């Protein structure tokens, strides 16, 4: 399988007020051509920081190290001008809130045409035709009319389709969807994800899906990376991971998913305790021990002292745990 994106030992550090925050710590994974990889985890686990590091969209204060090779090109360390050449053309991103990503004072169609002309030497008329073609591709009704409308005239789901059209305007090899359906209702979420996977099959692109929604990951991802406290703690093909959970944190996440078969007014399950503090004095490494130890019912003294490394078994299932589960199956669905 050809890797469109190869991430190796990616780390992100911030230095607020004399401290060091290890937002992402030695993250590694690959995204194959035509495949969807989901990175899942709680808020603050490092999902978005890792994806923005690839795009070069972190603040200047962030210290990024490691490697992210896209189509043979190393993105980490590229200058701003070089990154702009690749953003939108080779890799594109759909953000969580399309209302904040679109200019409210500018008609929607010209915004897409502007993005096209930033990467391709074509006329305004040709860019307009391409934008209308993209509106048809993402199944927006009356595309010629929509071209001249403003963002406030679109529903949330329609605005997200506009953002997908903009992301696809230069036929990128990799599409990063950063919580792209979070602000939408469940039915629209499923519609958008089905649209993305249909376009993926049509265009042959790879998708990196950043999400806290395990149901969407189970329904649409080929491979899953589970992050906790800035690190990958479990990684496997989606069918293998959800059918044979090994990491207690992943099991706890799945156990907290609301279920329709629970009795009314049943309290929602939660993961006890709090995530670890990721900041430390300058020059120091992250704290020793498993970061999930304080919240894990299987933890012992070794878990407190020694940090387990991500190790892969014969089934291609990797997990970082001294006391992994024997393997438990979880049936969840993100489709409406």
Protein described:
With 336 residues, the chain is of the alpha/beta class. The chain has two domains: 1-90 and 173-253 and 279-336, P-loop containing nucleotide triphosphate hydrolases (Rossmann fold); 101-171, no CATH class. It has twelve helices and 13 strands. It has helices spanning 47-55, 80-86, 98-101, 108-119, 124-137, 143-147, 156-167, 186-203, 214-220, 238-243, 248-255, 301-305, and strands at residues 3-14, 20-32, 36-40, 63-70, 73-74, 91-94, 174-178, 206-211, 223-228, 231-237, 279-280, 311-312, 318-319. The protein has an eight-stranded mixed beta sheet, sandwiched between helices. α4 packs across α5 (124-137), α5 (124-137) packs across α7 (156-167) and α7 (156-167) packs parallel to α8 (186-203).
How is the topology of this model organized?
Elements: E1 3-14, E2 20-32, E3 36-40, H1 47-55, E4 63-70, E5 73-74, H2 80-86, E6 91-94, H3 98-101, H4 108-119, H5 124-137, H6 143-147, H7 156-167, E7 174-178, H8 186-203, E8 206-211, H9 214-220, E9 223-228, E10 231-237, H10 238-243, H11 248-255, E11 279-280, H12 301-305, E12 311-312, E13 318-319
Helix pairs in contact: 4-5, 5-7, 7-8
List keywords for this structure.
336 residues, alpha/beta, Rossmann fold, 2 domains, five-stranded antiparallel β-sheet, 13 strands, globular
Instruction: Indicate the CATH class of the largest domain.
Output: Alpha Beta
Q: What is the CATH superfamily classification of the largest domain?
A: P-loop containing nucleotide triphosphate hydrolases
CATH-defined fold name of the largest domain: Rossmann fold
Class per helix and strand makeup: alpha/beta
Mean pLDDT: 88
The major beta sheet can be summarized as: 8 strands, mixed
Can you tell me the residue ranges where pLDDT is under 50 for at least 5 consecutive residues? none
> Any guess at the CATH architecture of the largest domain?
3-Layer(aba) Sandwich
């Amino acid at each position: 399988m050809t890797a469109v994106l190869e991430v190796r030992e990616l780390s992100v550090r911030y230095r607020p007020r004399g401290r060091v925050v290890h937002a992402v710590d030695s993250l590694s994974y690959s995204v194959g051509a035509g495949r969807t990889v989901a990175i899942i985890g709680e808020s603050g686990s490092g999902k978005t920081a890792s994806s923005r590091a690839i795009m070069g969209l972190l603040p200047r204060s962030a210290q990024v190290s490691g490697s992210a090779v896209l189509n043979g090109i190393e993105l980490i360390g590229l200058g701003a001008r070089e990154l702009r050449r690749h953003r939108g053309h080779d890799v594109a991103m759909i953000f969580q809130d399309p209302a904040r990503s679109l200019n409210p004072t500018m008609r929607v169609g010209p915004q897409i045409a502007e993005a096209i002309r930033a990467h391709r030497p074509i006329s305004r008329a040709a860019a307009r035709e391409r934008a209308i073609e993209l509106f048809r591709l993402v199944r927006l009704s009356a595309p010629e009319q929509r071209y001249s409308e403003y963002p406030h005239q679109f529903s949330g789901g329609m605005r997200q389709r506009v953002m997908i059209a903009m992301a696809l305007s230069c036929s990128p090899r990799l599409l990063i969807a950063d919580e792209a359906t979070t602000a939408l209702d469940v039915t629209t979420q499923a519609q958008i994800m089905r649209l993305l996977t249909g376009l993926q099959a049509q265009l042959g692109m790879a998708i990196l899906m950043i999400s806290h929604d395990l149901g969407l990951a189970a329904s649409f991802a080929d491979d899953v990376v589970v992050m906790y406290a800035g690190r990958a703690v479990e990684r496997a093909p989606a069918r293998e991971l959800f059918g044979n959970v090994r990491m207690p944190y992943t099991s706890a996440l799945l156990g907290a998913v609301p279920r329709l078969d629970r009795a009314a007014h049943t309290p929602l399950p939660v993961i006890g305790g709090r995530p670890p503090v990721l900041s430390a004095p300058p020059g120091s490494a992250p704290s020793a021990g498993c970061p999930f130890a304080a919240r894990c019912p299987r933890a012992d003294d070794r878990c407190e002292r020694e940090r387990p490394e991500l190790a892969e078994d014969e089934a291609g299932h990797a997990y970082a745990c001294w006391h992994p589960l024997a393997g438990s199956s979880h049936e969840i669905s993100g489709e409406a």
